[in-house]
Amino acid sequence: MSTVPVALDLRICPACGDRASCPQADGDILRCAECGHRWPFRRLPLFALTGPSAGGKSTVGPKLAQRLAGEAVVLEQDVLWTGALRDDVPGNPAFRGAWLRMAAMLHQNGRPVVLCGTVAPQELEPLPERVFFSEVHYLALVADNDTLRRRLRARPAWREWDEPRIEEMLEFNLWIRGQVESIDTTDARVDDVVTAVEKWVRARIGPDLGSGLGPVRHDSSVRRRLP
Fold this sequence. Notes:
This protein is α/β, with parallel strands linked by helices. The protein has a six-stranded parallel β-sheet, sandwiched between helices. A three-stranded antiparallel β-sheet has the order 1-2-3, with no helix packed on it. A hairpin with a 6-residue loop joins strand 2 and strand 3.
């Protein structure tokens, strides 16, 4: 008896090989628009650890990876900010879509992804690849503008943080606070922030990673200023 293999790239139909530009999913079942073949996949939640540059993502990420080892995969999104993915289209859909496909492939191993990088819900939610995830949870690491300005000015020259770019990031810092849950890192200890993010992820992973998780109620208590 022969069986139909499952492709790691969820856009590709394992039966006919068609590559979908707009994947179709009914819960945790994908359907090929070309041949009608249906196949199951792991539909897990994606965690977006966002916020302005210098908010603390790159500091928290490595420690969070240690805390969540064996339970989730923590990744830095800027590693793919290169080549053709470095597009000038608003929202950077080629870049964001590539990351969603990558995260979805990693999810087929049974562990959810925590993606660290500056992103807003409006840049992920409309993408065709959004269908691969049960939920996308957003948490922003923010700080007061004076602190962010100081941190960005202290960065090495190769990062090219001139004053206009800094001011643009400060505007994003103020804006993202009103969009998603946030943790203020202005005066917070690193370990306290890592612990808060770890708890936030664990509360939303759910007990069964392989079943395709449904919506999880957000806990607004995460929005606080750490001591």
